[in-house]
Design brief:
The structure holds two protein chains of two kinds. By secondary structure, chain A is mainly alpha-helical. Chain A has helices at residues 3-13, 22-39. The longest helix of chain A is centred in the middle third of the chain and has 18 residues, at 22-39. Chain A starts with a helix and ends in a 21-residue tail after the last helix. Chain B is α/β, with parallel strands linked by helices. Chain B has one domain (4-311, 350-469): Alpha-Beta Complex (Amidase signature (AS) enzymes), CATH 3.90.1300. Helix content of chain B is 39%, strand content 13%. Chain B is built from 15 helices and eleven strands. Chain B has an eleven-stranded mixed sheet, with helices on both faces. The chains are: A mainly alpha, B alpha/beta. Chain A binds chain B through residues 9, 13-17, 21, 24-25, 28-29, 31-36, 38-40, 43, 47-51, 53, 56, and chain B through 210, 239, 243, 307, 310-311, 313-314, 317, 328-329, 332, 337, 340-342, 344-350, 353, 355-363, 365, 396.
Chain lengths: 60, 470
């Protein structure tokens, strides 16, 4: 990830990390990007996210 | 009688019920011990001596009047400082929430008060339950009682320390990626992350609502069962709270484990990450104990541990950032570095990646569910290593043996299964099927009673020596 690109990404978030925070933040984001790549790719449209909500059944 | 501060709930409650042990005297003993020893451990952010003694006097009067409520009546406990307490600051160990005084108790705190527990105080945590041991927060990090230069684990660090060191008979923790089981592991105690939805999350500062679990941390699995007896109640105001028939957790304990089928995802700790040799040796010895108790042991295969870990990390980061975004944009200086950066990283998770992480999670739940049709429990080490140097542990780095059970929501218990060559506790993780927490606790209890590790406690420095060393 090049320095300018990461700085632009940070700016887009509205966050203002300290300059000394930037290398550690960039490392964390690089790891997050690597993790995100694992969940991309082909999936059936029918795959539900776990967060699909369930309404309680009415008590009778 | 053993030292009262090292008694289990099961031992103390029998004496309290028989009126051979006074809740007031017991509370004084713990408060005196906190005053003498906590300067070297930093387990407590805020001891609550006056309120504790008042609650103890009430308990004593109730019991003397024939109104004994049950095994938690008169038992001194501590609360991780992300549990809301009415009229008492709940800080999240953060300057941001230094003046946060809730109007009401968390649902679980209210249940514990109704059961007659005595709240000794609010306990240290990693800032907002994420990051790691930090030295740039308003309060110092907790220290491991087995070696105060070592990590106690986190984020329920004060809870693990207080229970192991005899500064509370039990404590409440929370667990989003291992925050109950991690400190239970490194402090050598028992800590249960219950099934998702078994315990209410309402009134607990959230980190990642779809992964957050409340749970008990005690010296023994039996004590965790006694806590669960009170805590496992439906909360109609927590959207995730389950409605399941009540279980007698204490009655489920005892007997042998004949016919119990244990699965071991050996690749988790033999190839997916590297375990310390002493941790591996303790684990293999633990399997022998379970075989001797009548269980059968078979290897099973799941997705790579790194996948569970990474997807958990994505979800945690995204959900935590959603909660903290306004504060991080406006007052980032009120966070410590570790918490600030970990939560900020969630700003970079896209909505599509978050949703796909939750879709992958569905697949992982189905996979573990299918594997557990062939076994009743999964066993593995809780942590691949014993406690590292304080401040040197990065909870975001590498694969985690605890996160699979936050991802799936299945119950998982950490118990002490020995000590390494440096005298630091090793640990065993026992995971079960949803709402079979009683079986997980039965296995932990049987293991603890078949071994001798519950008889060893950490030796603390004399109070004067500890003060001189500072």
């Amino acid at each position: 990830m090049d320095e300018m690109t990461f700085a632009a990404r940070v700016k887009a978030t509205g966050l203002t990390p300290k300059p000394e925070d930037m290398p550690k933040l960039e490392a964390l984001v690089r790891d997050m990007d690597r993790a995100a790549a694992l969940v991309r790719g082909p999936r059936s449209y029918a795959e539900e996210p776990l967060s699909a909500f369930r309404l309680p059944t009415p008590s009778r | 009688m053993s030292d009262p501060y090292f008694m289990t709930i099961a031992e103390a409650s029998a004496l309290i019920r028989a009126r051979k042990l006074s809740p007031v005297e017991l509370t004084r003993i713990f408060l005196d011990r906190i005053a003498a020893y906590d300067a070297q451990l930093n387990a407590y952010i805020l001891p609550l001596a006056d309120a504790a003694l008042a609650a103890a006097r009430t308990a004593e009067t109730e019991i003397a009047g024939g109104h004994y409520k049950g095994p938690l009546h008169g038992i001194p406990i501590g609360l991780k400082d992300i549990y809301n307490t009415a009229g008492v600051a709940t800080t999240g160990h953060s300057a941001l929430f230094r003046d946060h005084v809730p109007d009401a108790d968390a649902f679980t705190v209210a249940l514990l008060r109704e059961a007659g527990t005595i709240t000794l105080g609010k306990l240290s945590t990693w800032e907002f339950a994420i990051g790691g041991a930090s030295f740039d927060l308003p309060w110092p990090p907790a220290r491991n009682p087995w070696n105060t230069a070592r990590e106690p684990g986190g984020s329920s660090s004060g809870s693990g320390v207080a229970v192991a060191a005899g500064l509370a008979m039990a404590a409440m923790g929370t667990d989003t990626g291992g925050s109950i089981r991690g400190p239970a592991s490194w402090c050598g105690i028992s800590g249960l992350k219950p099934t998702y939805g078994y315990l209410s999350r309402r009134g607990i500062l959230p980190l990642s609502p779809s992964l957050d679990h409340a749970g008990p941390m005690c010296w023994t699995s039996e004590d965790c069962a006694l806590m669960m007896q009170v805590l496992a109640k439906h909360d109609p105001l927590d959207a995730a709270s389950a409605t399941v028939p009540p279980v007698d957790f204490a009655a489920a304990l005892g007997g042998d484990l004949k016919g119990l089928r244990i699965g071991v995802p050996r690749h988790f700790f033999e190839t997916d990450l590297t375990c310390e040799p002493d941790v591996l040796a303790a684990f293999e010895a633990s399997l022998e104990v379970f075989r001797a108790l009548g269980a059968t042991v078979t290897d099973v295969t799941l997705s790579p541990l790194g996948l569970f870990t990474d997807v958990n990390g994505l979800i945690t980061a995204a959900e935590a950032y959603a909660i903290h975004r306004e504060w991080l944009q406006k007052t980032p200086h009120l966070y410590g570095e570790r918490g600030r950066l970990r939560i900020m990283a969630g700003a970079f998770v896209t909505a599509a990646d978050y949703v796909n992480a939750q879709r992958e999670r569905t697949r992982l739940v189905q996979e573990v569910t299918a594997v557990m049709t062939g076994c009743d429990l999964l066993l593995m080490p809780t942590r691949q290593m014993t406690a590292p140097e304080l401040g040197g542990y990065d909870s975001s780095a590498g694969a985690s043996l605890t996160r699979p059970f936050n991802m799936t929501g299945f119950p998982a218990l950490s118990v002490c299964n020995g000590f390494d060559r440096n005298g630091l506790p090793t640990s065993l993780q026992i995971a079960g099927r949803p709402f079979e927490d009683h079986l997980v606790l039965k296995a932990g209890d049987a293991y603890e009673k078949a071994t001798s590790y519950r008889s060893a406690r950490p030796t603390l420095s004399a109070p004067a020596a500890a003060l001189a060393a500072n």
